[in-house]
Design a protein that fits this description.
Number of helices: 3
Structural class: mainly alpha
Helix content: 55-70%
Oligomer: single chain
Number of strands: 0
Strand content: under 5%
Distance between the termini: 20 Å
Length: 84
């Protein structure tokens, strides 16, 4: 529910700070905890995984992007820029 409604709100610019906060904790924190629990740290930062990339990189990048939107806000092309 958070991924669907939050991404829609973030894309439209409505409640973008609240949506990005929820998406940050869902994807950026909980998904990384899941990846670290399942795969471990994969010899980070010195080892190179067999697939060429660490399993936690996409969720960590998504979390960083949502953290940016949480701090910066919706922008000037939002439907409701002054709404939270």
């Amino acid at each position: 529910v958070v991924e669907l409604a939050g991404s829609l709100c973030l894309g439209l610019g409505v409640f973008s700070r609240v949506a990005s906060f929820l998406l940050f904790f869902t994807v950026g924190v909980f998904a990384n905890l899941f990846h670290f629990d399942v795969t471990g740290v994969q010899e980070f930062p010195f080892g190179v995984p067999a697939g060429g990339a660490y399993a936690f990189e996409p969720s960590l990048l998504s979390g960083a992007i949502f953290f940016y939107f949480m701090c910066a806000g919706p922008g000037k092309y939002a439907l409701r820029p002054n709404l939270l």
